Amino acid sequence: xxxxxxxxxxxxxxxxxxxxxxxxxxxxxxxxxxxxxxxxxxxxxxxxxxxxxxxxxxxxxxxxxxxxxxxxxxxxxxxxxxxxxxxxxxxxxxxxxxxxxxxxxxxxxxxxxxxxxxxxxxxxxxxxxxxxxxxxxxxxxxxxxxxxxxxxxxxxxxxxxxxxxxxxxxxxxxxxxxxxxxxxxxxxxxxxxxxxxxxxxxxxxxxxxxxxxxxxxxxxxxxxxxxxxxxxxxxxxxxxxxxxxxxxxxxxxxxxxxxxxxxxxxxxxxxxxxxxxxxxxxxxxxxxxxxxxxxxxxxxxxxxxxxxxxxxxxxxxxxxxxxxxxxxxxxxxxxxxxxxxxxxxxxxxxxxxx
Length: 354
Description:
- The protein is built from eleven helices and eleven strands.
- The radius of gyration is 21 Å and the shape is globular.
- It starts with about 30 loop residues before the first strand and ends with a helix.
- It has helices spanning about 50-55, 125-150, 180-185, 190-195, 210-230, 235-250, 270-300, 310-320, 325-335, 335-340, 345-354; strands spanning about 30-35, 65-70, 75, 80-85, 90-95, 105-110, 110-115, 120, 160, 170, 175-180.
- The chain is of the alpha+beta class.
């Protein structure tokens, strides 16, 4: 089916309800169209809460044709299959690389870098940052491939720069990244974080607890240590642990919610913090070789069919070479870790505990 959309008027209501980053518009200076602003029909319910609870998985392929003045570049996370220029107009045709759950299109006077099939779209004033992001992207892909094994198919990864304040976004084939990451050389970890998500699988849990965000938060710091030679993991894990404790101190109504229920209670932002500490401890307990084998094997077994938290836990216990029952019980299925952290237990002491 072909859907033709005509846009007119102003986008109102998002900032007023707290979604401050939704500034999508059609503008010669910068254009953004994405599902956050309901820019096109999508599968769901007439309720944000109900749609989130349903946890819709990637479910469609797309082919999109976008025509713009030939002074502008159309950026998307799909594969560019056609570009035609005629009478001052340029038509771009993008297709999804695999099953998708969203379409994101940005239009600006982009510079484009390409290497080994990967692309970085950057604003003209950020060409140096674009080159650095491309280097981080390539090095991150090489590192995680060495650790976890090759990805299925022939993945092509894209990074698209957008203005600060518009909200970064990740899909399985790329990143929409705020300009600050292009302008600050100390934020390479953000690129490593998003690249590591390529080795995630579609979750069959619903609503998902998103522990894979904790894994990515750990892997980004581990990549910094490996690729840039500066300490990162222990310090970040200490900060994350303190931040998680503060969250529960300020919101005692959630103090009894374990990580596996974060999706049900809509507090998956905590998965970055609690999950990061958990995977820091797990990596120390089993060692890098077993840890990398676990992540790679979970991806290989479930990349096509999807996987659940229970399947990950079962595989981890089988690959660990030691008893992890207490670790998973205290961090995934109860909030015992929180009580211990409140008593002053440090990241290093958690490592010694198991």
